[in-house]
Structures are given as C-alpha cells and as structure tokens.
Amino acid sequence: MQHVEDAGDRAGGAQPPGAECEAQDPVARALAAVSGQQVPTQRACLDLARALSSAGDARRAVQWAFASIDAGEDFAGWLAASRLWQRHRADLPAAPRRARVAVLGSYTTTQLTNLLPLACARAGVDVEVYECGYGLYRQELLDPTSGLHAFAPDVVVLAVDAAEVDLPAGVDDPGAAVEAEVARWTSLWDLARERFGARVVQHGVVVPPDEPLGHLAARVPGSRSALLRRFQERLGELAGSPAGQGVAVVDCERLASEVGKRTWSDPRYVHAAKQAVSLACVPLLARHTAAVLAAQLGASRKCLVLDLDNTLWGGVLGEVGVHGIALGTGAAGEAYSAFQRHVLALKDKGVVLAICSKNDEDLVREVFEQNPDMLVRLDDVAVLKASWEDKPTAVRSIAATLGIGEDSLVFVDDNPAEREAVRELVPAVDVVPLPAEPAGYVAALSRYPFFETDALTAEDAARTDQYRARARAAQERESAGSLEDYLRGLGMRAEVAPLGAANVARVAQLLGKTNQFNLTTRRHSLADVEGFAAHPDWHAQVVRLRDRFADHGVVGVLLARRVDEPGGAVLEVDSWLMSCRVIGRTLEDEMFGVLVRQARALGCARLRGAYVPTAKNSQVAGLYERLGFSRQEGADGAAGEGSTGWVLQVPERVTTPGLIEVQVEITAAAGGPGGGQDDDVPAQRRQEQEVAR
User: Fold this and answer.
1) What stretches of 91-209 adopt beta strand conformation (E)?
2) Among 86, 124, 382, 578, which lies 20 to 30 A Cα-Cα from 460?
3) CB 454 within 8 Å of CB 509
4) Does residue 385 register a pLDDT over 60?
5) For residue 350, what are the CA distances in angstroms to 143, 380, 547?
6) How much is the pLDDT for 692?
7) Radius of gyration of the chain (CA)
8) Strand 430-433 and strand 517-518: pairing?
9) 405's torsion region: left (phi>0), alpha (psi -120 to 50) or beta?
10) Which of residues 476 and 342 earns the better pLDDT score?
11) CA triplet 281, 164, 225: central angle to 5 degrees?
12) Around 167, how many Cα atoms within 13 Å sit in the side-chain half-sphere?
C-alpha cells in the first residue's frame, strides 16, 4: 500500500521517491488522483477503472467502476461504467443472486432498463431484464401470449408516474376515489404474483410541483396533490400489510425531493420522448430500484463497521482524553451526535454495529462508559476491535467473529488511506467515504442504499444482541478444553415448531437471504410459504435456538413434501437452511433426527433430498453423505446445474450428538402426531425422549 501513502504525501505537497516513474504509469497516476481526494469524484473513479481495465486487472477495474456509480449520477458516466463492467463481467465470479426482472412502464423506460443490470450487479444480483412496450404494462400482465409471460419474471418492476394515476381534482368523494384507484393498482400486484409467483417492486408516484391551487391545495382534500399523496400513502400501507406480501415500494417522492422535482422530470423529455424521469435522475432511480430489489432477494448488507476518532466522535482520543472528544456541544459536536443517532436508527432496523479503531481498548471503553454525551453504548455494539493492528486484518477478524461473510460488511472511516487499504485488501467489503466536514456524515451514510430491508421482524430488532452473544460465545470457545465441552456449556435449547402465522414471515425472510448453510437456495416467497403451511402434504421444522447468552430467534428451517410413489411414500426435502449465526453447533444433526421421526410418523419409507451448489454453500456439500444418504443415480442435475440427488431408507432411530435440548411442537397437520413420536407415548414422556435424543 506504499503507493497510497505516497499519494497522500503528494496531496500535502511532498514529492516521494519514484514520483517521475509513477507519472509514467496510468494506473499509478489515476490512483494518485483518487487518493488525493477526501471523497473521490465519479470522474476520478472512472478514470482509475479505465486504467485498470487497460492493464488487464478485471476485478479492480469493475470495483472502481462500481465506485464511480456510487460517487455520482452523471448519466454518461454510468453508461461508461456499464460498458466497462460488461467488458469484464465474464472474468468475475458469479453474483450470489440471479433474477429475471421485467420492467413494466407507463412511460419510456429504455434508459432505466439499460442501467438496471449495472445497478443490480453493484448490489450483488445478476439480472436478465425484459422491457414491455411503452404503456403496455397492464396488457402484458393480462395477455397469456405476451412476451412477458414467455419471459416468466422472478421480479416485476412497475415503473409508473403520476400521469398514469386516474385521480382528477374535484371528485365528490376523495376517499372512495383513492381506494378505487389503489384497488386498480394492487390488482396488478395480484396478477404478477398469481401468474409468475413474482415479487413486485412498485415505483411510487411523484406529486408534480405544478399545482393550480397553490398552497390552498394542502387544505382541499379533493385537490390533485392531496389525492396523489393519499394514494401513495395507501400503496405503502398495503405493501406493508399481509395483502402486500412480496411487494416493495421505491419511494420516488423522497428521491425527487432530494434532487428537486424540476430536475426529476424535464418537460422536454416528457413531451418529446414520453420519458417521465429525466436523464439526470435515471441513475438515481436505477440505484434505488436495484437496492430494493436486492433486499427482496436477501442481498442486503448486514454489518456497519465504524472507526472512532473523527468518525463516531471528533478528535483523537489518545490526545484529547475521554472527556475532550467533540460530541454533543458546538457545531462539530452536534454533527457527531447526529451521526450517532443515525447509526442507532440503522441498528434499530437490524443493522449490526461493530467498531474497528486503532486505539487503546481500555481507553475506548472508558469513553463508552463514562462520557455522558455518548449516544452509542457498548450494548449497541456486537464486536469492539480497538487495537493497533492494521484495519484490513481487524475487519476480517470482525467478519470471522460474527460468522458472516466479508461481503456482509460496510466500512466507514474518515481516513482515505484506511479506506483504501480496506478496499484493496478486503475487496468484498463495501467502503463508504466520508466528507471532510462531519456535518455531511449523515447524508453520506444515508445515501448508501444497501442496508435496505424487505421487512422488519422481531429478529431484526434483536440482531445486535444476538451477534454480540455470538461474539462472547466465540471468546469462550477459545478458552474451552474441547469443542464438545464448549458446546455443552452453552446450555443450548432448540424449539421445533410447525409453520404458522407467528413464523411464516421470518421463514420467508430466511429463505430469501440465507446462503452458507442452504442445500438448495430456493427463494420461496411469503405467499409460497403460506401455501406450504396450509397444504397437507407439506411438513416443516421451524427451529428457534436459545443458549445461556441469548435467544437467537428462528435460525433453522426445513421444508419437506410427502410424495406417494409405487415403492412407498417418500418425504422429499425441498429446503434445508440455517442462519450463519448457529453453524457449527450440531443443530443440523438434531434437525435430521426430527426429520427421521417425521418420516416415520407419516409412513414414509425413504427420505430424499438434493444439494444444489452455489458460490457460498460449499460447506454443506457433504451433509447428506455424512448423515448416511446414498447418492441417487439419475438424479444429478435434476435440481439445477451441478446438483446431486440423495436418498436414505428411513432408519428406526437416529443417534444425535445430544448437545442441544430439543423440544418438538410439530402438529399433526405439519409433521405428524407429536412431530414423529409414537402415539402411545404420553406427552410428558415424549418431551423427555426428545431431550434424551
């Protein structure tokens, strides 16, 4: 990283050795330009991406092409980044998510569909895009012979504008008019979900700035502006209700307010090309559409890794002391406090917080415990890494401690050199640059779009507590005499329940985002899961795990379907997954034991399953074989490219490690009486047997 430090010296006026040589190197010259900027410009990032592309460094070229679109919304710059990404995409590892995305517009959406693949790739999703004809969104949904039906999308984006909303001013009953129009649009959601099983991304409407009634419109319920605002509110309410499962909304009104509504929509483009969103704002819309779509597919980032000095507070702790940091009072102190409030708001929606600081840990703890102006407390932080090791090593250690991939982390640091070190040496981590002025920190982090979530659950709100407990358990594991002693000492208790109203949302969420321990990675929607819960042939395990450190919530899901075949009934595993928080605790063995007992109770002679390899689930490649399954000839590839099929004659009983106390609540409708227990065993005795097993 010497070249990064040299670039910083040049920015301060120093001339390092070899400067003339670097001046001849296009990559070094472009990198020096980027490193000399507190927040690199879109142009500087793109120049570096081009230089790296010419040098044959595909990975870094695409990394900086992505950085260029993070840095700005210049349309030409996005097109250039898109061309560069397309040039190198075949040289890069496959994205962890794939989807077929149909963009159905009420206006010309060609520019949006051109940029959407790039924006989705930046979000970690590889998409194939279909664009309907101008204004034909409703016809294509209704016509079974349309190109949309042949395309069979996984996600339908309804890209509509206010002109398409049939709410004229002066209606007699504004409330009824809004409800009727809302019903017209939600019927499109129903079509997309029923005909394709697709998720829906609804673009919200932007209330036009031209209102003949002026400020009086705010007082007139029947004004066009008031009707559109209420229409937008109702769409959001319904998308967040059970009726809107699988539907997400892009808040275009908020985006337009950020850039200015007269910038958002240019009448020249509207009249000449029927393009409701100006070219200047198409990149912004593409970025946020991709972020919402990625959240639906479980590709959001999980953890915010924060520096301390001049990031979470002002000043260098080792120089100014515990009570000398800038926080709470004065212009700078208020800015840092505002940033802490924003960080806490992210934590409240499920983002895990971690600290990565070059500092004395004891002194850092004193700040959190003794400085009354600190809003973020130690209880809000899952992992605290305060040491003098380099930031890339510390960031990797945080990911390992939390048991999550490096591609789940977002790193925030005021120091450009530290940011560059992490970007270069831990490239899977997203890096958010902060401006020189702390008053701009909230806006900088708020503009980062990949903390989007598809829904909020109780597990999301408690996520930091769960990961902090995991970190404490990891520390205890290091001091344990053996792995078995450590696991037994956790006092783990698993509760196995059927699918039901209380857990279907969490199950759908896990199906959508779990990657590492996931044998098939089938992304069933909430509507699918609700259908499984109601179908007599589908049987499930929804597993909640507690230990002496924390209640980890619902962390395991196994979905299986009873299939009658000539050789006897088979219980076929459709999906088997566990949260990364509990991998390595033998929970999969206990789930297998319950699965065997379910199969016996259902009269199934065999168990059958498949392993479908992905870029992230290699750790479960040998699970079926370890559990005694035999590879099923002729089944390889049936579940997807590279997949293998596995079958097992249902054994009389299974011996599990016995390190987890298991309580089974499987009902007759979802797994047989007593979850696979013998019917003549009293309930209390059955529970004792579960614990013993």
Assistant:
1) 97-105, 125-131, 155-159, 199-203
2) 124
3) yes
4) yes
5) 41, 11, 20
6) 33
7) 27
8) unpaired
9) beta
10) 342
11) 80
12) 30
